Amino acid sequence: MSLSALVLNCTLNPSPAASSTELLAQQVLDALAEHHVTGSMVRVVDHDVLPGVQLDMGAGDAWPGIREQLMASDILVLATPTWMGQHSSVCQRVLERLDAELSEKDERGRLRTYGKVAVVVVVGNEDGAHHISAIAFQSLNDVGFTIPAGGVTYWNGEAMHGTDYKDLPETPEAVASTTRTLAANAAHLAQLLNGNAYPPSSTQ
Fold first, then answer.
1. Sign of the dihedral through C-alpha 102, 105, 110, 114
2. Rounded distance, CA 185 to CA 27, Å?
3. What fold characterizes domain 3-195?
4. What is the pTM of this model?
5. How does pLDDT run across 20-55, given as a tens digit for each residue?
């Protein structure tokens, strides 16, 4: 069964700047590839995603094109840096735009995101990964995504120092192991959901 994943990289750094968020997100894509999942990445800050909670906010809005890629994928990888203990403003913009999915249903009353798996990537030089993943999990589940066991991989450096994930001489084994588990569980769940749709909505 062919599966695909899309990373929405919510770094604040436009291309071509190096990005720790992109590095860990790419490691997730590489781990997913070991389970025959193809992947691609969008650096959201490079696109003019307008504020709002509609599918299309009008002229110049880049979200409809990004959403088209998302809807064609089986797995969403939402990747964010940590700033002031929170997910990035770009990540918040993505979550707000996903709110529009609550009004998009199929002929059996199910959200069109049902059957899609979502996982989270968090990097930063301070604490916050558990807080950020909790917010992201709830938000993504609210709009129809399914979260697998072990659905987050993260790296938080020591507080008040300047080392970035991309500057580490090698990937810490704890991060690499967590990333491998995330990929295995996400691919497994996506395959199960791909062949076994959720039941019709009771509110249809």
1. negative
2. 15
3. Rossmann fold (3.40.50)
4. 0.96
5. 999 999 999 999 999 999 999 999 999 999 999 999
